[in-house]
Design goal:
Elements: H1 9-20, H2 30-73, H3 75-83, H4 88-131, H5 134-139
Main location: membrane
InterPro entries: ABC3_permease_C (IPR003838), Macrolide_Exporter_MacB (IPR050250)
Membrane topology: Multi-pass membrane protein
Length: 141
């Protein structure tokens, strides 16, 4: 099979694949591996993005539930505040500020917890790397 100047290596491989009806792995070039690895990473990141969106939805529902229960328990307090002249806008601002405080506290605690989990998880590989014999590492290729 001859390759002309206007045919790319990828098109040439596809023509060979179409002619013999089976893929030959040894014909994979760098661009093929880049596309395979890129597709794998894209799939992995879409799963992670889905999990992040799911966790945001769950945390939003949790904050909404907490604030609804809190306001239902304080309905008498809110009525008293309205009776002494607190406006509806101020009550809305108070509850929004409470929700912001819950979200901020959860973010700080979650970040600190993530840092702790990362450090604990890194301890085993770090200790294993430190215990590796020098002669063994110099022989490793």
């Amino acid at each position: 099979m001859l390759k002309s100047e206007d045919v790319s290596p990828l098109q040439l491989r596809e023509n060979i694949f179409a002619q013999f009806e089976e893929r030959i792995e040894s014909m994979f070039g760098p661009e093929d591996w880049v596309s395979v690895i890129g597709a794998t990473y894209t799939g992995s990141f879409s799963i992670i993005n889905g999990l992040i969106i799911l966790s945001i939805i769950v945390s939003g529902i949790g904050i909404t539930n907490t604030l609804l229960i809190s306001t239902m328990e304080r309905i008498r307090e809110i009525a008293m505040m309205r009776a002494v002249g607190v406006t509806r806008r101020q009550i809305i601002g108070m509850i929004l500020l409470e929700g912001f405080g819950i979200g901020l506290a959860a973010t700080v605690i979650g970040t600190l917890f993530g840092i702790v989990v990362s450090l604990v998880s890194s301890f085993t590989p770090a200790s294993r790397a430190a215990k590796t014999k020098l002669s063994e590492t110099l022989r490793y290729e």
